[in-house]
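Changelog-adjacent note: as of this version, every example in the card shows the full chain rather than a window. The one below runs 283 residues end to end.
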Amino acid sequence: MITATEIFCLNELGKRANNEDSVAPKKGEATVQDRLFVVCDGVGGEKKGEVASQIVTHSIQEYFKKVLVDVRIGKEAIQKAILYANKNLSAYVATDVSANRMSTTLAMVLLGDESVIAAWCGDSRIHHIRNGKVIWKSRDHSLVSELIYQGELSEEEARSHPQRNVITRSLNALSYNNSVDFHEIESFETGDYLLVCTDGFLEKVSDKVISEVLMDEKQKDKALAFFAQCREVTRDNFSMYLVRIQKSAINKNNSSTSLRTILVISFVVILLCFAYFFFIKGR
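Full-length structure tokens:
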């Protein structure tokens, strides 16, 4: 079973006039019992991007808490949660036409028993990190990401590119170009990290910085360490969830024992009912 052992969160203003980033659970409210971590970055303050990011983070969290209490965790469940969020975006726009173009990025992870489902849309990113090394990360839906993929830009050049904020997908009320990519992460070891963050967080935080912070055993508060990297130098808002993972084997023997116990108890109850009706009622 995959569970969290440590959780670090940032949801900071940066040098913007308002914070368009939203996270779920809210900063300071996450516990190691949580299995869902969501980060969103609203697009365009004048288009109510902060409202869009709040609606999406809240809707996805609400869906898993209230609608899917016992559902099997997987891609289909996440797709339904995102559809629920999109419907709530549309419902808001129905009451405020000026917000019809509001949208948000999305990056989220859902911890399962044996794997993690990652989902994203836009340029908020997900990383799987082991021993300070990023061994997998999501590919942004952005113009500079395409240029990097085509070999026309390096990641370092992309950080200062004049069109670095142009994204090619987002969640929006108009359902325009809002498809979400999925990736199932199956290979985990205890001590691995999941980092879910907005593009503002990555302005000053490279893979090298991620490695340095996570491998620094003296600095226990990783949120504080990353905050120090971004404070007063990051132009955009910067938000993240950093989750340290523990993987333990599911005790199938206990599950089998519990099932056998239930079957035995059920069999005894049936026998008692049989005896009551045929030997006591029959008199």
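Structural remarks: The longest strand covers residues 2-12.
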